Amino acid sequence: MNLDQVQRLARKNPRHPDFADECRRQSRLVAQADMADTDMPRFLDAALADLDDR
């Protein structure tokens, strides 16, 4: 079984031994992308201000 097959299986089955590792890997990728997105805080602030105006 290659890495891609293991990752697909781990994503689908929380009882798979590699499930937690795959969750951590994906969480790290999301966190890295989140930190690199400097426009998101401004977007969220604008969305919140828009809600306050209603």
What is the compact description of this entry?
With 54 residues, the protein is an all-alpha fold. It has three helices and no strands. It has one domain.
From the N-terminal CA to the C-terminal CA, the straight-line distance is 54 Å
Average pLDDT confidence is 82
Helical residue percent? over 70%
Order of helices and strands: HHH
Q: Let me know the number of strands.
A: 0
Proportion of beta-strand residues = under 5%
In this structure, how is the largest beta sheet organized?
A: none
Shape: elongated
Figure out the total of helices: 3
Estimated structural class: mainly alpha
Rounded to an integer in angstroms, the radius of gyration calculated over CA atoms is: 18 Å
Flag low-confidence runs: none
How many separate domains make up the residues? 1
InterPro entries: MazE-like
Organism: Allochromatium humboldtianum
Protein name: DUF3018 family protein
